[in-house]
């Protein structure tokens, strides 16, 4: 959910990955996306996704995290995965980031 969307940059050996929320906005909704649109495979076969969120100061970025996690679950992104790592902002100012934890997703 990092606004810079650069958490996967080094794993992918590239610039910032396009986020789920950005692609959903372009497509019309998250339902219009396919897993292949948002998931990139990097070093050592590591699967990478950047959730994204609204512009800083507008809306709740936690909703972007929840939307992304639900999309990934519904499309089988976690199937056959041994370990999942989340990179979230350190200066959390809203409760939306706690939602995935409460739902046993993190």
Automatic annotation (TrEMBL):
PROSITE patterns: NIFH_FRXC_1, NIFH_FRXC_2, NIFH_FRXC_3. InterPro entries: NifH/chlL_CS, NifH/frxC, P-loop_NTPase. Keywords: 4Fe-4S, ATP-binding, Iron, Iron-sulfur, Metal-binding, Nucleotide-binding, Oxidoreductase. Its cofactor is [4Fe-4S] cluster. GO terms for molecular function: 4 iron, 4 sulfur cluster binding; ATP binding; metal ion binding; oxidoreductase activity. It holds the Pfam family Fer4_NifH. The keyword tRNA-binding does not apply. Coiled coil: none annotated. Belongs to the NifH/BchL/ChlL family. This is Dinitrogen reductase. It comes from uncultured nitrogen-fixing bacterium.
